[in-house]
Amino acid sequence: MKIVVSTTGKSSEDMLDKRFGRSEYFYIYDTETEQAVVLENEGAKAGGGAGIAAANQVIEEGVQVIITGNLGPNAFELVEKAGMKAYSCGVMPVDSAIELFQKGELSEINLPGMAHHGNH
Amino acid sequence: MELVVISGKGGTGKTTVVAALSQLAENRVKVDCDVDAPNLYLFYPGTDREQNDFFGGKTTEIKQELCIKCGKCETVCKFGAIKEGIIDSFVCEGCGACTLICPADAITLRDEKTADTFLTEIKNGIVSRATMEVGSDGSGKLVTQLRKNVKNFLKEDLISKENMLSLDKSIIIIDGSPGIGCSVIASITGSDAVLIVTEPTKSGLEDLKRVYELTEHFDTYVMVCINKYDINLDMTYEIEAYAKEKNIYLAGRIPFDKTVMEAINSLKPVTEFSESSAKRALEEMWNRIDTTLRNQN
Amino acid sequence: MKIAVLSGKGGTGKTTVSTNLALTLNIPYIDCDVEEPNGFIFLNPVLENEEEVFLQVPEIHKETCTLCGACVKACQFHALAKAGKEIVLFEKLCHDCGACKLVCEADAVTFRKRAIGKIQRGRTEKIQCERGILNIGEPMAVPIIKKLLASLPEETQFIDCPPGTSCNVVNSLRFADAAILVTEPSEFGLHDMKMAIELVKKYSIPYGVIINKDDQTENMVKKYCKESQTPLLGAVPYSREAAIIYSKGGMLCQESSYKKIFEEIAEKMKEVFRWN
Q1: Is residue B57 within 8 Å of B114, Cβ to Cβ?
Q2: What pTM was computed for the model?
Q3: What ipTM is given for this predicted complex?
Q4: CATH number of the CATH domain containing B279
Q5: Alpha-carbon gap, residue A22 to B141, rounded angstroms
Q6: pLDDT digit string (tens) for A64-73?
Q7: Structural class in CATH, domain C54-115
Q8: N or C: less crowded end of chain A, CB within 10 Å?
């Protein structure tokens, strides 16, 4: 299973970023191989529709679980339609966030946050 | 901890309040997210230690040597941005439809520079700010970048560990964007508290309602202050009744005071002027905000 | 002649100046500040008709769509995304550019109308008024501004523009033959006015400055106008009474002292804009 954490840096010690669409990086951890890759978030480069661009990217990466702070309604809708699960987490190092998830201590995001309906 | 000051309507005195509160809070880190009218930095002359191009949009370019003048781009453009093979970059929205239709491959889509971002070193701190290209729009992306620039600055250890610790405890005050659009959303996202500056006028109340509706969608603590409250006491009462109904914390009322204009024009926070009614009101307001926010954490 | 009323900074009195000049001169008033259209609060016209403004947004037909994802890639605004076995549209991000249809090889894209705001027309006793209103939560003001301005008759009218120098202002200015910049005598007002002048200059149209909330001294805006040879059309003095009238939604030109001031500004404006 692939888990993605929205983050401010490239290592597992960097902090989780509570923004999904505009976090700088995605830390993608594969629980089977125990390997991780770090990708630049396409959403952060987008003028508008950051959450959609970001969700599109993780869907294409074949991720099943998202750990972040909040999901906007656009990203939320996509995540739901793609059959992924998203979990809410506070600001902490990425590896701690993954650990909490694996212990089942994170709660699932069932409601979207505010839309960032910017056109620019 | 981040406190964002916003206004909904322009001209209510948001920047004046930000400058005063920053001084009272002994704020060393300032972020000017009011990118359409970036006036905060006028208060703080300093040296720019970092300047970067910011690419906030896309635009198109026609390579004239490849263009066969077929006119297809002109018909496909729904924005009327192409006339006789020339693109009006002010009107072009960067959708790329013309690049898709062009049989000669003469049109390319490229990133458009929409602003310069600056980290300006001032006495006792830094200001993160931007100047927009004329005709460009402030955007959530730009505001996010300005807030990020500050964090990068702090991370890069450019300030001592000791300062870092005190910064962690201090309250960063952000001059937010006006209106209810994309950039104000990006100013509020992830902040701990929002202070809405309004004025006792019909337009002021209308715009307060609009911007408050927006803040309701965020997990942030909302406060309101009424600037120039004594210009129309009836409207002030109406605004206070609205705040009460919505359970918005009334942080303060600031009287109309000529010293405020004097302060703006000498480019100093009003709190640096000797006793004035606005100064007293701002000091009282800061104490209330400080206590309220500290109790929350 | 279409006269655009602009201000770099918000809250300088753009609406005050344009509504009062419109009444003074008996000229139609068009409110293009569609995100905060406050002009009608002051003019209080009787509404005559209302028209919705639409955008065309795509509909992707499941039966014919091959899920190739070309439309998702073509959309620069991230209004389309592929999730599982469908293409999802985020209509608020759609700019109505038509790129998705251009790239669809399966011919699975058609369009439908989506309302984003409206245009209202009305009359006061003396003048015709129009305004655009952007629905709350809608991000795109430009289509409403275009619709409002593209169909205007040739007669003289005031266009109350959005504040700032954003693309909403650009789209209001495109249709103007002259511009008035409203500012206040403060460092902020001056700074933001200079930005607005930069924009107006690109259009090679005549322009002039009106100072609102004037302190009746030889202030920095007056100095700037003199030094840069920018025509100063007039100044509306600050008074507590004026602020109170404004706060209640009243018209300044109905007070005798202010009536004269707006008449003088109107005269000067005709001179500078060479308009008969």
Answers
A1: yes
A2: 0.84
A3: 0.84
A4: 3.40.50.300
A5: 8
A6: 999 998 887 7
A7: alpha beta
A8: N
